[in-house]
């Protein structure tokens, strides 16, 4: 499973929504004449929007430079937003399991723990294969798993075994509970690795 820019998109869409709402309210106030009655400095609804000479305003070289810089900034933000849409794994760096350097430091590669999780999940009834990825820190770890099962796997039993066996074992190894856990289950026609299974079909996102 990969991380997506959902939180970033929600933030930017909220900002754009507020700006669009404010702009709409301002246009309604100007069109109805309400804004003019509130402030005498506001021009009447039928008057031109701009009364200044645009050629004189944008004639100096610094005005062109300001517009160019503003355009580059807006374009850069737009490009950054587009690149943020690319799904990414963002695996965690090495976990530091001891907080006090005076008593020694233990570093653990998250891929080692992820491989142990995969091996344990692969032994569960009905599982064809799995992949695990750890993110975050040793004190606030996140785990995402993609599990492939055969079409006779008991999905509820599988989730129960993961929640009562796999995740507690990982929490014990890290000495801290998982902050977030994501499990994606896919159904395949391949044979399971072990166990007796019952009928179940579909894809489950847990």
TrEMBL record:
Segments crossing the lipid bilayer: 12-31, 61-84
Name under which the protein is recorded: Alkaline shock response membrane anchor protein AmaP
Keyword terms: Membrane, Transmembrane, Transmembrane helix
């Amino acid at each position: 499973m990969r991380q997506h820019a959902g939180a970033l998109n929600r933030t930017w869409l909220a900002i754009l929504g507020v700006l669009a709402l404010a702009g709409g309210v301002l246009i309604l106030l100007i069109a109805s004449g309400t804004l003019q009655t509130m402030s005498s400095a506001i021009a009447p609804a039928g008057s031109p929007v701009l009364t200044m000479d645009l050629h004189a305003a944008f004639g100096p070289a610094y005005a062109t430079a300001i517009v160019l810089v503003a355009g580059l900034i807006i374009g850069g933000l737009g490009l950054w937003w587009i690149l943020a849409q690319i799904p990414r794994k963002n695996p965690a760096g090495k976990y530091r399991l001891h907080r006090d350097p005076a008593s020694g430091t233990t570093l653990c590669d998250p891929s080692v723990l992820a491989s142990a999780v995969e091996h344990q999940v692969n032994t569960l009834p009905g599982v064809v294969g799995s992949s695990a990825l750890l993110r975050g820190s040793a004190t606030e770890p996140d785990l995402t798993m993609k599990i492939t099962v055969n079409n006779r796997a008991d999905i509820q039993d599988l989730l129960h075994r993961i929640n009562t066996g796999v995740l507690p074992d990982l929490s014990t190894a890290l000495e801290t509970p998982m902050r977030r856990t994501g499990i994606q289950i896919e159904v395949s026609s391949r044979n399971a690795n072990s166990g007796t299974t019952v009928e179940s079909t579909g894809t489950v996102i847990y």
